[in-house]
Every structure is written in structure tokens, then in C-alpha cells.
Amino acid sequence: MRLGRVVVPIVLLVATLVGAVPEQAAARGMGSTPLDDIRFWADQKKACGLGRDQLAAMMMAVTYPEAGASGEQAPSPMTLSRYDTAARLYAFGDRNTPWQRAFWHPGVGMWAFDSAGGWNLTAAGAISTFYAAEQAATVMASRWCANPTRSHVWAPWFACSTSTVCEDIYNNIYDGSSLRNITLHPGVGRDGGMETRACTLAGEPVTCWYVDPARAQGANWWVNPSAGPSPISVPFYVVSVNGREARYWLKPDTGLSTSLKADKPITANARTSLTWSFASELCDVTAGRGDCGPGARVATTPWGPRTATPFGSFDVVSPTVGAIDVSGWTIDPDTNDPIDVHVYVDGQIVGATNASGSRADVAAVVPGYGDRHGFAARMGRVAGGNHQVCVYAINAPPFGNDNPLLGCRGVQVSPNPTGSFDSWVTSSPGIRVAGWAVDADSTAQIGVHVYVDDQFAGQVVAGTSRPDVGAAFLWAGNDHGYEIEVDALPGRHTVCTYGINVGPGTNAPLGCKTIDVPDRAPFGWLDSVTRPSAGTARVTGWAIDPDRIPPTDVHVYLNGAFAASLPAAANRPDVGAAFPFFGPSHGYDVTLAAPAGSVEVCVYAINWGPGWGNPRLGCKTVN
Amino acid sequence: MVAAPSLRFLFVAVLVSLAAACGTSSDVATAPTSSGAAERDTISVAVYWTRPYGQSRPIDIPAYRDDAGHFPYVLFGSVTNTGTDPISPVRVVARWPVGDEVYNAMAKVADPQGGALAELAPGASADVLVVIDDASVANSVQDIVPTFEAS
Prior knowledge:
The complex is a heterodimer.
Chain A: H1 8-19, E1 28-31, H2 32-45, H3 52-67, E2 107-108, E3 113-114, H4 123-127, H5 129-146, H6 150-153, H7 158-161, H8 165-173, E4 182-185, E5 195-201, E6 204-211, E7 236-241, E8 244-249, H9 251-254, E9 259-265, H10 270-273, E10 275-279, E11 282-284, E12 289-290, E13 298-299, E14 306-307, E15 311-320, E16 323-331, E17 340-345, E18 348-354, E19 357-358, H11 360-365, E20 372-380, E21 385-393, E22 405-413, E23 417-426, E24 430-439, E25 447-452, E26 455-461, E27 464-465, H12 467-472, E28 479-487, E29 491-499, E30 508-517, E31 523-530, E32 536-544, E33 553-558, E34 561-567, E35 570-571, H13 573-578, E36 585-593, E37 599-605, E38 616-622
Parallel strand pairs in A: 1-4
Antiparallel strand pairs in A: 2-3, 5-6, 5-11, 6-7, 7-8, 8-9, 9-10, 11-12, 13-14, 15-16, 16-20, 17-18, 17-21, 19-20, 21-22, 23-24, 24-28, 25-26, 25-29, 27-28, 29-30, 31-32, 32-36, 33-34, 33-37, 35-36, 37-38
Chain B: H1 7-10, E1 14-17, H2 18-21, E2 43-51, E3 60-61, E4 64-65, E5 73-81, E6 92-98, E7 101-110, E8 125-132, H3 135-141, E9 147-150
Antiparallel strand pairs in B: 1-7, 2-5, 3-4, 5-8, 6-7, 6-9, 7-8
């Protein structure tokens, strides 16, 4: 779309640029996202026999001469017209205004939508290829349906109405069924360098767009001050309110003593309907620029001054049981107060925390904000496996609206069960073991197997209450403790517990311990066997059962035959001295009838309670 | 139905006093007729482009094609019937205020094939074209934004 009274210079420029291109052979450039937008809307709007790529090619063909993109250059979505010098486009309608660079460019974008065309597009809409492509697709498809010739479709675009350039480009980039000869430019985005920001107008929040020609992506010949008869504007803001488009030129951009504003109905011709004024109402809260009342604070950092938007660092992530531990720091330049951070795992938020921990190291390098800006938190539940963890700082008002990414880090959370073999006690019939176990892949209670000397000894579901575990792993809950008693003979044993896996992963050891299982059988001694008289034998000794203080019984055998049972209750001060816990009353002294000749006397202590067997205290032969 | 005259004869430059033209909208893109609205059809005109007089970039679109070597001032746009009744015949006049005077020119309202449009239904749009073949008139008006009226 071209409208203007001083057409010749720029037309010649464009003609020169385009004329240098071998239209039938060379590839044509296009921003990757703009091409996506074009194809999307071509697909949405195709009609009356038009194919998607056919309409897309017609839409694209217009952009090269209209935006002055030559060769493999991508048309700039931000393209601003430079050919019109109508007085009303200058500040206050004065071509000699001292604010020469506060200029309202009437034609905007890859399709050069000019305000005289009545398009329902602000400059921001004309720049955004998503919105502009919809408009172009709508117009072209409608015209195709009325008269399926490209000369009719392209008639609203001057460049395509006065030469074969668009036809040549169309035939170059479209083979009759598909697009071809397109060089993609990933660096040319949908908005072509325009930035969406949060603003306030007289204190009321609005969305605004910051158009800085110096940031234009794609073919930016039009940025050159000598590229056309009109000035090139300094950066300006676009705001749409109540059906009107306003553009603001802020003092920091103009370098002048006041900010300027011009506005008009969105669909009106700028040449006849602009209203210019001095303005002190726009505040770019994203960047902390403009008429924002008290100025945004500026944080002095080793990395340069920072305003409005939080900054900081995501220092560490470490895996734990079904969770991750994250730490770092962040500061919002607007406030000394701690701000929140949000933690995402694989794109899904898993938690938030407040960065209020002490970080003296941060305070040392960012003065004036205190030291309460650290964060260290456990986030879960995080299933086993490899994950990407990203932390965002949450902006605090009044300036800025970005919640910047502090960083992303990778972490591997074990998919296997985790837990602990905490404690054990020897008991009857062996050992009682205890601990806890969880699996990152489930909040359910999992199984625990116990092995003694590499032999399976028992299993249990870890379901007893362990508030300490629940406190450490909030995602898991309390009921993940285990206790189980397994058999073990007296002696030294290796006891291991294993968590039984759920979901991905494998069973995992919870811990092993070397445990000495004491002999709980009675012990003692056969001191003597004598013949106090013919036909008798006197048997003396002592016996203690470690499971009881009262006397334990002993059995006496003569030549292998049971002869007597008696409690070892006689006074044995020597034994009491040696085993004071049990006391002296553990002796035995008994005289039995015994045959003449050689007699073997054996004494056994009789076990009481835990313990294995009735140990022999000794055998002696008497003649 | 009005027979379409040849394009060259569509151009009529008439000087009238500016006072006579006062009251017309100055907004090209949304130019409703504001005087005599009771009996006048309501239109809006959007201007897509203009070619200055003498600029040797030949135009070749269904609504208009230059004669060889001859380059009049051309304005191309779209007219929309914003009223509730069909407009027939479709007549649009462009007006340029020049000092205290007004230049008037009849515009061609073209059908998609380039012929004169017989009727413009409510809400419908059509191409509109103004051609000024007189150098002095063209040079006087081509820097000025015209207003449009249904006549």
C-alpha cells in the first residue's frame, strides 16, 4: 500500500533494489515466524479454489517491493514508510518543528498498510505479522473470489500495480503447488524487533509496544536517515485505547525537554486526523521509563545498572528423594523486600518460595538492598529421571512486568527407592530392624525386603508413621516407616534391607549393618565331681541364664543317663562377684547316688526364654 | 443502470467555492457524506495509493491501464456502502480544497473486472479510481487529501 505525494525518490530506490535481483533464480528471504504466520492465515483464508501456498505466495510477493527487501533479505516486519512528508505527520503539523524526529510514519509493516487505507490496524498490528498477515490474506482472498487474477488481487499495492515485479517474484517462489526458493531467517521474528511492554497511562495499566527502528530485524534500509524524504522517527510507543491509536515519544528518546503524543482513530488517515500534544502520562513500567512519577530505582551491580526487572542467580540444584533442592538469590530493583521465585520442572511449575534467606555475599556486591535475598528450598514431588529445572523471579511492582528467568539447570533424580536402615535391636528370635523407604515414582507405601547373610529373611510394607520422613519429603506423607523382626542365630551377621521399586528403576539397598547376635543360652561351669562316700558322687558348679536373674535349672547325667534336675541356687560369692548383675545365688552343689567304678558326670544348663539349646556346662569322670 | 463512460471522460474538474464544499468530511478513510444525508447515499472511501502526475510507472490493473507514454495522476482505493440501501447508480465525487476553492472529480467505481459498477449493495465494497489528466489541476491537488461523497 503506498500513498503519498512524494513518491518518486523512494520508488526509485525500491526499484533499484529490486531491480538488482534476478527474480527468476535467486531465493527470497523471509523470517521464519512471519512465514509461519503467512502460511497459517493463507490456510485459514484460502477460498474460491486458492491453495494455501498459492495465497501465501501472493501475500509474500507483495512484501518484497513494499518493504524494499532485495535478494535474500527478509522483509522487515517493522518497516516504516519514508516517502510521505505531509505536514500533519510532523509534530503539531509543522514540517519545521524542532521535534523533527517525532514523526508519524503513515505506512507500516511488510505489507505497508497505510492509514489512508482505513485498515483496522495500529502500527503494532501492522508490524506484527500475525495480525498483518491475517489482513493481507483476507483482502487478497476476497479479491481473488471477485476476480481470480493476480493483477486484481494486488491492485491495492502500488508496487504490484505498476510493474511485473510481484508477478516475477510470485513465479519464483511458487512452483504451481508449493512454495519454493525461500531462505528462512530465524532472526527475523513476528514483531520484527518491536517489543511488547507494560505501560500505564495516567496510572492505568495498558499494553504498549515499543518500536525502536534501531532494533529492526530484516531489511532495514529504511532506518537510514537518508533513505527517504521523511524523517525516521526516534523510538516510539504504540498504545491502543478506545478505538484510537496513540504514539508516544518519550523525553529519553527524543532528547528533548518534554514527551510528545499524537493520536487518531485507528482507521483514520493520519494525514487528516492526527492530534498532537505534549504528554506526561505514559510510563513504561517494563523498563521503568517515561512519566512514571518517582523514578524507578537503579540497582548498582557488578553487571551494570539494573532497573525494574528482577535479576539474580539460580546457583544450585541437587536431587533428593523424589524432590530437588534449589538455591540462589534474586533482587527486584524496586524494593528491598524479598520477592518470590517460581520453580519449574520440565516446564511445569512445582513450587514457589520467597527469596528471603540471608546472602551476605549478595549484599556485598549489590549495595543498598540488604542481604535477605537468598532462596533455598526443596521442591517436589519430582519423579525419577533426568529433568530440566528452571527458576523465575517474580517481579514486584511498581516497575517492570517481566518475570525473568534466573536460569535452568539439569538434574537427575533417582527413580529407585530410597530410604534408610536406621536401627536394630536383637530380640527373640533374632533381630528387629527399622527404617524408612519411599519411591520417587509414587506416594504409595512400598515393600522392604530384609536379607541376613545374603539370605532372604523377611519382608514388610513400609507403612508405619514416620513424621520425620513426612517433614523431610512433604510430597510423600508420614507413613513410610518399616519395622520387622527376622530370625538370626547368635553370632555375627550382615543384615541388609532393600526398597522394592515402583515404576521406573530398580530395587535399591537401603543399608546394611553388621550385627552381633548374642548367645542368649545359659552359661556356667562344672567345677568338680567327687566321691564323698562310696556309691555317691558330689557335683558342684554354677549356671546363669542371661534372660533371668532367678536361678536357672541344671540337669545332671551319669554315664549318659538323666540323674537329677535342680536349680542352680546355691550361694556362690565368687560367681556373684564375677556377675554382680545376677548375684551370688547361682551355684549348684548336689550329691547323688552313683555306681562304683568309673562314672562320667555331665551337667547341662536349661535354657529359659530366648536362646538356643541347653548348653552343656561340662563333663567329668570320677572313679 | 448507467452505461460506463470511458475512463478519460470520467474526470471532471470543477472549480467551486470552498464554502460550497464545507461540511464534507475531511477524513478520507471514513468519509461519510454529512450534508444532505437524508437523501444522499452514505459511503466511506479508503485510499490505497496515488501516483503523481507524470510519474512514468505504468499502471496495469483491471480497473485502469495507462495509455502508452501517458501518465496522469491516479488515485486508487476502495469505496464501501455504509448505508442501508443499495446505491444505484454508483457515483462518487472526490473533492480537494485548494485555498478558497474546491476541485471536484468524478471517480470511477469499478467492478472486479474493471468495468463500471452498476450497483453497490449495503456493506459492499468496490474499487474506486480517480484519474486527473490535466497537469495543472493534478499538480494542485496531488498533495492534498481529498474527501469523497456519493453524488
